[in-house]
Amino acid sequence: MINYKVKATCEAAGMRYPCYFSGGDGCTSYWTSGCIRYDHGGGSCYSTNQVLSANMCGSTNPPQCQSLDDTFVYMPGIWSDDSAWGVDYETQSHGLPGANYNNKYALCADFDNCASSPCTHGTCTDGVGSYTCSCENGWKGTDCDQDINECTSSHCVHGTCTDGLASYTCSCENGWEGTNCDQDVDDCSSSPCAHGTCKDGYTNYTCSCENGWEGMNCDQEVDECASNPCWLGGTCLDQVDGYSCVCPQDKTGKNCETGITFCSSRF
Predict the structure, then answer these.
(1) Total count of domains within the chain
(2) Which cysteines are cross-linked by disulfides (predicted)?
(3) What mean pLDDT is predicted for residues 224-244?
(4) CA distance 64 to 84
């Protein structure tokens, strides 16, 4: 039970290894950068075994705590052969050099890996030497700290996408509407053709006008008198889809095109 084997055993189990001292202020002896500092909350440099013995057995004397029987803790530099430091409950002894013992227990630590709240936008599940995060909607990554860009899927068919938190918004091009800008705007919905039939198009419409009406919206009456149909002195009266002529006394016909012959009477 030498130090590097204690270390390797803990790591193989997915756990970490504490150093001999528990880690109060100024406790630097028998310490390396890879150790876990088991802090008992005090300022004295108690050994890790003393702290565990007090917590598990109510005594700070490790050999009197059966739970620590045959355990060896990582203690670099105390012996030249790199032995770990051990406890034997049966013989009520401690400070045992690990190089003299085999098939004992390595003192490893499995701390709450979620204690530091590593999942920025998610729920943490503790594991042996690790943790996993279940991310909230809109977040991804090992620590749920990466915003998902909802616009990468090209939701906006005919528009510009703006990413949001677990959402997106589309600014539609002219002539399109809907959450994903995939619905053609019905330009005839407002009934723009006053006297005609509307045909929807992309971003526009066309009107087929009824007889007697013209203009983009079929809202301008056709002036049937513009061609001066009442020739030879008649007066034209415009009507919807038609006209009428008021002829002089010597003319008749739809367009005043027929002359009237007046005959005198004899008695």
Answers:
(1) 4
(2) 114-124, 135-144, 151-161, 172-181, 188-198, 209-218, 247-256
(3) 87
(4) 19
